[in-house]
Structures
1.
Amino acid sequence: MRIESAFLLPAHDGLEVAKLMSEYDFKAIEARWQAAWQEKNTFCTLGPGDAGFDASKPKYYVLDMFPYPSGAGLHVGHPKGYTATDITARYKRHRGFNVLHPMGWDAFGLPAEQYAIQTGTHPAVTTEANVNNFRSQLQALGFSYDWSREINTTDPNYYRWTQWIFKQLYNKGLAYQSEVPVWWCEQLGTVLANEEVINGRSERGSFECVKKPLRQWMLRITQYADRLLADLQGLDWPDSVKAMQREWIGRSEGAELHFQPACADGTAVGAPFTVFTTRPDTLFGATFCVLSPEHPLVDAITAPEHAAAIAEYRELATRKSELERAELQKDKTGVFTGAYAQNPVFPKGDPRHLIPIWTADYVLMSYGTGAIMCVPDGDERDREFACKYDLEIRQILDGDKMVHSDFLNGMRKDESIPAMIAWLEENGLGTGKVNFRLRDWLFSRQRYWGEPFPILHEMNAAGERTGTISLAADEDLPVSLPELDDFTPSAGGEPPLARATDWITVVDQDGKTWKREVNSMPQWAGSCWYYLRFLDPHNSGAAWDRAKEDYWMPVDLYVGGAEHAVLHLLYARFWHKVLFDCGLVSHSEPFQKLVNQGMVQSFAFKDSRGVLIPVNEVEAKEDGTYFIRESGEVVEQLTAKMSKALRNVINPDDVIREYGADTLRLYEAFMGPVTASAPWNPRDLPGVFRFLQRTWRVFERGIGSEENVDIECALHRCIKKVGGDLEAMGYNTGIAAMMEFINTATKVKLPLTSAQAASFCILLEPFAPHLAEQLWCDTAQPSELAFASWPSFDPSKLVADTIEIPVQINGKLRARAVVATDCNRDDLEAAARGALAELLEGEIRKVIVVPGRMVNFVMA
RNA sequence: GGGGGAGUAGCCCAAUGGCAGAGGCAAAGGACUUAAAAUCCUUCCAGUGCGGGUUCGAGUCCCGUCUCCCCUACCA
C-alpha cells in the first residue's frame, strides 16, 4: 500500500486528508479515529447518579470474560469474542440503549509469581507491563470499551472489596477452616482446588499432585448446590455448559443405609458403617460390601489373618497417585478384610445374612460415604469385581422387574425404590438421601500474588494460636500485600507471606497479639464479582452503589471461552447468590445470556508417521498439497490448536499492520457463526479487505443527488438483513448482506445519496468502525455516528413488482410463473395452472398455494 | 461408558418445513495495461455422511446408523 505524504497530516485536518486520498489507507484512518474516540470520550458511559444520564433509555450490559494479561500478549483467539461483543455493543447504541461495555484485568495468578521467583522481578511490575501491552493491543482494534471503567483485580482499591465480600461470606458462616486432604502440588508449592486438578495433574503446568492433609480455608458452596442446580433452568446459556454444571454439581437421589460389621461367626465387631446407593431396592441382591482403602473402619474390622494383606494393599493405594488409579482404569483390584456385614433383609442364620467386606480402590473416599454395598446383578462394576474374585451373584432383576426380593417382587424401580426407602426408615436401617458430587470449595492458596485474607488469628503468650479468629475491620481494608523480594515458600512449607514478619504481627489496642492469615485467596476470587465493580469502579465508600446495580444488572450478554464452563461460572454464580441473600444485589443470577465463542484454530501438518511438523518447515505445491521443504516429503494438512511448538500462532499485531484493524475485526466475525471453531486461514483475509476497499471506492464517487432504484432496494434489503442478523448474533451473514449491497452499488456505478451513505455507514459501523467513521465524516453527515439511530427499512422497497414463483407437481419443480408480488391465492393458482398447461391433465387431488412462495399440485 | 455439538460445491460457510446458494476463498475466461500487479466484468461446480419415517413438500422434524470434534468418567 502506497503512503502519500498527505496521510501524515494531523488528525484535525482529516476532512482535507480524505479528499486527497485515492486509496483506502487504513493506517491513517484507524489512527485518526482511535485518537478521536479517546479525546472525545465517545464511549464513556453514564450511569445512575451521573449528570446527564438518561434513565428513560433501556440498558444493555455486554461483557467479555476479562483476560489474564499474560506475557505472551493477545492472540487472535481473544478478538473473536471481543469483536462479537463490540459489534453488539455498537449495534445496541444505535438502537437507543445505554450500553455498558467495560474491560479489565484478571491479573492475580501463577505466571507472574513464577516469573518473579525465576527473575526477581516483582509480580506487580510484570503485571503492569503486561496490562499496558494488552490495553494497547485492544485499543489498536478499536473496541468501544469504556476505558474509564477499567479495573484490575490486583489493585488494592479493587481487592479491598474482594476482601469485604469474603467477610460477608464469613459472617454468613460460609467460610471455615478445615484440616482436609487436599491436592498438593510440589512443583507449584501450593494446594489446588479439585477443579484445578485433572487426572492427578495440575491444570496449569500439568505437574503431578498428591493428596495431603492441611489446614485450609473452605467455602460452603455445597450449601447452595440445590439452588445452583435449579436456577440453571431460567438461564439463556448453551446446553453444553448447563449440562457440565449439572454434572459437576452431580445431584443423585438414593438412600443411605447402615451395615453392622461382624466376624465370620456373626458376632458384631466395630461400629456400623453407612453406604450411599441410588438403588436401595437392590438390597436383596447385595452379596458383598466394599470400603475405600482410606475408609477409617478398615483397620477396626480387619481379621488378624488378613491384616498383613490389607496393610500392604492400603499402603499401595496411598502411594498410587490419582493419576495411576485413573490410568489403570477398569482393572479392578481388592482384598478381603475377613469381616462380614449383616444384610438386614435376611434373618440371622440365613446364609445370605452375612456378606463379605472387601476393600478396593475403585471405591473413592471422596464420594458418598466411601463405602458401597455391591449388587453384582445390578451394577456392572460390582459384577466385574464379583467375577474376578469369585463372589456370589444373586439374581434380583428380571428385565425391569424385581425378583427374589420379597415385598418388592414384581415392582419396577420407580415403585421399588420408594418402597424400600420406606421400609428402611420404618426399621431404622437407613434414610432417603440426596447426594451431591459437588465438594466445598477449597479457597486458600500458598501464594504471594493473590488477595490476602482479612483474617487475624489470636496468639497466646507462648506464641501459639488460640483458635480465636477475628476479621479485619472494614476501615482497615484493604489488607495490602506486603513487599517481598523472595516469593518462594518459606521454611517449613509456610506460604511466602510468612516471610513478611512485620506485616504478619498485629497488636491491638488491648495489647493482644494477632497474626495475619498467610494463605491467600485463589485466582477465582477476583473474577467472582468483577462484573459488579464495573458498575461503579471508582466508588471508595462501597463495592458498588445499589442504584447502579439495580439499573445495570443482570449482564445481558456474556461472551467467553467454554473452558470456564464450570470453574469461573459456578463460583461467580455462588458468590452472586450469597450477595443476593445479603440483600446486596437485585437478582439471584448474574449472567442472563451466555455465549461461548468458538476457538480460533490454526493449520498444522502431519507427516506419514503422524508427527506434527512446524508450519515454517512446510511449503504448498501448486496443486494444493503440502510438502516439507527440506526432504520433499508430502504432509497432510490438519486443523490444530495454535501453539508455539507448531509455530502456527497468529499475532493480531501482524494482521493489523498488513490489513488494518477493520479487516481483522471483519475477518474474525466473518469466519462463521460466533460459536463455531474454525482455523485461521490467511488466504481469506484479502476477501474481507477487498470488501472494505470496494466500499471505499463506492464512496469515492462522492454524493449523488439522484436516488437510484436498484441501490435503494438493495440498501433496504441490507438494512433488514443486517438488523435481523445482529439481533441473532449472525455476524457472518450480516457481513455477507453488506457485501451484497456494495457489489450492487459497485455495478450500478452511481454515487449514493447522502441518506443512503448515512444508512450504510451506520450498518457498517459495528463491524468496521474506523472506516465507517471516515466515510461518515467524508459525506458530511450531521450528528455523531456512534449514536446515530439505526435506519429503518421500507418494506415496499424490499421487493420488485413481480416475482417468479416455482410451480410443482407432487413436490417436484415443473414450471415457473411470473406474478405480481402481492398476487392473491386465486390469481396465483390460476397463473400456476397456466404455467403448467397440459401437464395438469389428470386428477388433481389437492392444490397447495403459498402466496409469495410456491404452488404445488398433488396429482394421482 | 455418559453428556454436548457438527457433517451442504475443491475449501470456508448460507438457506421462518417451500426453487439447495446469500457471501467469501480457490479455479477458468474476458476488459484495462507495453507488461505485471491492482481493479472491474463473466463463468464453472454439489442435491445436503448413510438408511428409514412423517409431510402435498425434508438440508431443516422423528427413528436408526456411520464419521469427526469438545467435555466428562470406576460417582455407587
2.
Amino acid sequence: MAAVHPGQHKSFSLPPARERIDRAAYELFSRHGVRAVGVDAVVARAGVAKKTLYLYYPSKEKLALAFLQRREALWTQAWLQEGVNRRARRPADRLVAVFDLFDSWFHRSDYEACAFIRVLFEHDDPAHPIRKSTEDHIRTIRDFVRQLAEEARVRDPDGFARQWQIVMMGSIIAAYAGDRDAARRAKKLGVLLLADAGIRSRSRARI
Amino acid sequence: MAAVHPGQHKSFSLPPARERIDRAAYELFSRHGVRAVGVDAVVARAGVAKKTLYLYYPSKEKLALAFLQRREALWTQAWLQEGVNRRARRPADRLVAVFDLFDSWFHRSDYEACAFIRVLFEHDDPAHPIRKSTEDHIRTIRDFVRQLAEEARVRDPDGFARQWQIVMMGSIIAAYAGDRDAARRAKKLGVLLLADAGIRSRSRARI
DNA sequence: CTTCTGGTAGACTGATCGGTCTACCGGGCA
DNA sequence: TGCCCGGTAGACCGATCAGTCTACCAGAAG
C-alpha cells in the first residue's frame, strides 16, 4: 500500500478514466439534459467500461450532481464571472458585460442554453436533490450579480439582482426559442434597470 | 350509417372517452412535461383503455401536439388573454396586467410553470415537430403582446414585445426556482419599459 | 333476435432504462 | 517470476417505455 490517496494516480493527477467520464457527462448533459441521456451513452462517449463509471459514482443521480458542480466551475465561474471581470472594471459595466458575453454565446451554432434551467424543469418535485442543487446553482449566479450590484452602490442589491437575473434567464429562453438577438434586447433592459437605480453605465452610449 | 360525423357522438358532443384522454394528458403533461409521463399514466388517469387512446391518436407525439394546442386554448387564450382584457381597458394597462395575473399564478400551491418552455427544453433538435410547435406557441404569445404594444402606440412594437416576453419568461423561471415574488419584480421592469417607450401606465403609482 | 359500434381489460413485443456481475487483461512492483 | 490493481468488454437483470393485439362486453338499430 503506497502512500498515495485512494483514487489518486501515481502522476498526482486524476485517473484519465474518471476525467473522461466527467467530460463526457458534461458534454451530453449540458446539451440534452440528464433525463434524455442514458448512462450507456455517457459510457460510450467516455470510451470507458460501465463498471468504471459505477466505480466512481454510485448512481446516475450522483453523476448528475457532479455534472452540475462542474457546470458551475466551467460555466458560472470560468466563463461568466471571469468573462465579465475581464471585459470591464467598473461594477456597473461588469453587470452590462453579462449581456455582451451572452450575445456571443447566443450566436454560437452549438448554443445549448442554461443547463441549470434545463435540469430544473426535469424535476417537478421541489424536494428532489437534483432540483435543489439546480436552485442552489441559480442562487449562486444571483449572488454574483448581487455582489456586483452592491459594489455599484445600487439601492436594493437583492431586489436588483433578482430583476437582473429575470432578464438573464428570460433572454436565455428567448434565444433558445429562436431570437438570437435576445442578448441585445436584454442589454437595453439592463441599462434601463441601472438608470432607474441611479447608476450610469459606460455602455449606455453604445446602444 | 346515420348522418352523423365520424367520431361524433349521438348527443352532438365529443365522445366522453376522448375528452377524458385530453383532460388527463393536459393535467399530466402540464405539470411533468411530455417525456416524464408515459402513455400508461395518461391512460390510467383518463380511466380509459390503451387501445382507445390509440384510436384517437396514432402516436404519443400526436397526443403531445394536441396537448400543446389545448394548452394554448386554455392557458394562452382563456386564461392570459381574456384575463388581461378583463382586468384593464387601456392597452398599456393590459400589458402591465399580465404581471398581476402572473402574481396570482406564481402564488398558487400547484404552480406548474410554462408548459411551452418545459417542452421546448425537452427537445434539443430544432427540427423536431414538437419543438417547432412550442416555438410557434411562444410566438403566438408574443404576437398578442405586440398587438397590445401597437395599440399602445409603442415606437418599436416588435422589439418591445420581444423585450416584454423576455421579462415574462424570466419571471416564470425565477418563480419556479423559488422566487414567488418574481411577478412583482417583473412588473417593475415592465413599467420601466413602458416609460422608456414614452407610455405612461396607470399602474405606475401602485407600485 | 342479431348485428354493429365504441369501448374495456390487459397480455404481449421489442427496445431501452439504471444498475450488477463475471471474466479477462496489462503494467508496475516485490 | 508472480501477484495486485485499475481497467475493459459485455452479458445479464428487472423495470418501464411506446405501441399492438386478442377477447370480451353493453347498448342501440334493424
